Amino acid sequence: MAERERQASILVVDDDERLVASIRRVLAYDGYRVRTASTGLAGLQLAREEPPDLVILDIGLPGLSGLEVAGRLQAGGGVPVLILSARDSVSDRVAGLEAGADDYLVKPFAVEELLARVKARLRRREPDGAAASAPSLLRYADLVLDTGAREGRRNDRLIRLTTKEYDLLALFMRHPRRVLPHSYILEEVWGYDFEGESNLVPVYIGQLRQKLESGGEPRLIHTVRQAGYVLRE
What's the CA gap between 135 and 18, in Å, rounded? Predict the structure, then answer.
């Protein structure tokens, strides 16, 4: 594991003491710095005091639910969230991802899979060699995306983006005028291959459109019926 990855900070929020102790041991043994909380409110406070590189979060928390915590973390700056939950239906996974989570792992799970997902999520946070050498600004029409600050601008109007909104917009701006299928967007942005239909992509497209068009600008992200979405004037 790379040195930068080994030193990553992870916050585990779950009220199952035995599970938390087990996860802490596994992550610490693999070189991560680990903090824990047993309630949503306590986890949110820890994340705000010292933002971690990743939050591992249960949904069924006492008081403030995991979905609420994920939503507030995204609104507060976009800390990556990996949900752990015994709820395994597609609708539950979609709800977790729509709340702002970046990944969703069903309990019980294999330790190897948890570690693999943690590593994959942390790698997505760090630029690889190709990305590091690429231009820090992506431009299309009057829209500019700063990949360093993870912020957008349209006609000099600042557009603040959540983690997933940024990933989605960056995907479009790296493939302008190309129709991106629903399944391709899910795989590239969320890393999921859903069984059945999901409204996750349309929900995020809608949120992104609101932010891009809030100054009265014309639409840039268009729906191509039965094909997907495209960034074009």
Answer: 46
In angstroms, what CA-CA distances link 14 with 28, 38, 60, 83? 17, 5, 8, 10
Q: Report which of 229, 215, 216 is spatially closest to residue 171, judged by C-alpha positions.
A: 229
All residues at 6 or more sequence positions from 40 whose CB lies less than 8 Å from its CB, including other chains: 13, 61, 62, 63, 64, 65, 66, 68, 69
| Residues contacting 142, CB < 8 A, separation 6+ | 154, 155, 217
How many residues are given for the chain?
233
- Dist CA 186 CA 175 (whole Å): 15
In the block, residue with structure tokens 């309990």: 107
- pTM value? 0.66
Weakest-pLDDT range from 30-39, 44-53, 132-141: 132-141
Neighbours of 25 (CB within 10 A): 12
Q: What is the rounded average pLDDT for all residues in the chain? A: 85
Fold that domain 3-125 belongs to in CATH: Rossmann fold (3.40.50)
Task: For CA atoms 194, 197, 202, 203, give the dihedral sign.
Answer: negative
* Domain locations along the chain: 3-125, 131-231
* Mean pLDDT across 108-128: 79
**Predicted pLDDT at 11:** 95
- Using alpha carbons, list the distances in angstroms from residue 229 to 121, 157, 193, 223: 25, 24, 18, 5
Name the fold adopted by 131-231: Arc Repressor Mutant, subunit A (1.10.10)
Do 16 and 34 touch, CB atoms closer than 8 A? no
